[in-house]
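Technical note accompanying the year-one report. For the benefit of new consortium partners, we illustrate the data format agreed upon in the data management plan: each record pairs a sequence with a structure-token string. No post-processing was applied to the example shown here.
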Amino acid sequence: MRGGPALRLLSSLIAALLWCGPADAHALLVQYELPLPLGYYLAGAGATVALSYAVVAWFLRHPVAPSLSERRLRRSPPPAVRHAGELASIALYLLLVAAGLFGVQGDVADNILPTAIWVVWWVGVAFVSVFVVDIWYLLNPLAAIARRTAKGLYGLFPDRRPLPMPAWLDVWPAAVLFLCFSWAEQVWPANAVPASLAAGVLLYSAVTWTGMALFGVEP
């Protein structure tokens, strides 16, 4: 087949979509009466999508430099602050996974994991990191665990060094994982089942740690 990697990827995605079955995305279990005319909602939803694309296009053409607080946080956070943040994030990670695996499996409101993933992390941490300061850089438990593991591995195997990141990968791993995460949030039927969500967190962690073990934590 002629064409570059992007064309081959697009063709593969189209072929995969042709074999997909139906999916119920964000279905409402009860009837909901809109307090405003339907046209208002349709106009607002359309304007939101259009403005979102306009904002993204503007930032692509006019990159914004990191804020002063973000540069300070990324460059040289105080060791005590970084150490405390990493320990707290690791403890919270273990707590959430344990709650998902061994906690109440009935109503999602009775288990902390679904709310922590789909509200606090997916919305709260993401928006704060984008618009205020990159707190995920400081509180990422996967990176914190990998850093401590890497120190031990380098002590046992002093010749072990990370592989160079292939240039052709670029940001595709992040794009693919983001697509998988969005699918889980939108379509996955078990996305609010604590045990299933905890298993998904562990799978995502395993993929992330594999990449960190091969190419280093920071890349």
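Partners are asked to follow this layout when depositing records. The mean pLDDT is 80.
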